[in-house]
Amino acid sequence: MLNLRQLQYLQLLIETGSFAGRPTGHITQPALSNAIRGLEERVGMQLIDRSERPVRITSGGRDFYARINSLLREARNLEKEITYLAQGIVGYLNIGMTAVVSTSYGGIILGTWQNENPGMSVDVTIAHNPTLVEMLRAEQLDLVIGDPRELQGFTADLDMTPIPSQPGGAFCRAGHPLLDGRNVNFTDLLPYRFAGSHLPVHLLKLAAPKFGLNSYKEIDFALNCDNISVLKDAVMHSDLILLTALSCVRNEIKSGLIKELPVKFNLDAMWSYMTLNNAVAHPAIPSLCKTIETTLSLI
Asked: Which domains does the chain have, with CATH numbers?
């Protein structure tokens, strides 16, 4: 295999035309001469005519140099990219979010961060919290934003930083029968059934007593889906009640397509961003974390 350093020395010699005229000063004349001789032995032909001053590249050396010149240029570019990667300027991140997080603020966070880091690329996985954390532990994801309440058991291997919680609510289409002006309790919602993004059973169990229900199973989901757009469309075209974070439907509420029901909903969305302890993080992760905190603090 050709030695990249020897190729760089050949380029240096051709550019300066002398073993002695070294603009870099990183190699002595004897070392440079030995490096070129070693390269000639490796490729099996004479590259430099040493009988003339300044030294002259042979015809075979000229063809050889034409072929390696692009390689040397790519090597310089690779060194730059490695430097940029170490600084978190370029590279690739794999991020995980729950459906509610992604719809609420995922686009705002990533758009803001991407604008500040135009050399970075991001792949986003949308899934349940347990699945995302499993992928994080397998180092298939660099960072996860989700609800830590869904994580049962051992979590000491995770670095979890809370971010502002978001109020949850019950939402329906404009013109829904429940919007007739009467006082509405949560039990009044039950006949219309619900739509949601696979709310965890243990959270529903906590919520049921607060709603005056005997069992969480009374909260009957007609539609479970991790695509919030599907849920919103379904609710706007039916009498289903959507249970989600207020931030998921802020645009539809603003446009009048979806209404918030006047029901006290004691089930807020509590989120954290999570990384894996004792794992080597991508250098761009700190800037992403800062963007998450800054963006949500301004909303």
From this structure: 4-86 (1.10.10.10), 91-166+270-298 (3.40.190.10), 168-267 (3.40.190.10)
* Residues present in the chain in total: 299
What's the pLDDT band for 135 if we cut at 50, 70, 90? Answer: very high
- Structure confidence at residue 1 (pLDDT): 67
The full DSSP string for 35-97 is HHHHHHHHHTS--EETTSSS-EE-HHHHHHHHHHHHHHHHHHHHHHHHHHHHTTSSEEEEEEE
The separation between CA 180 and the C-alpha centre of its own chain, rounded to angstroms, equals: 44
Query: Tokens 């397509």, residue?
Result: 257
pTM: 0.69
Contact indicator for 288, 296 with CB cutoff of 8 Å: no
Tokens coding 20? 């002695």
Mind listing the pLDDT tens digit for each residue in 70-125? 888 787 767 766 775 666 667 889 999 999 999 999 999 999 999 999 989 999 99
- Here the tokens at position 278 are 């004792």
For residue 113, give the nearest of 293, 297, 299, 273 by alpha carbon. 293
Residue of higher predicted confidence among 192 and 38: 192
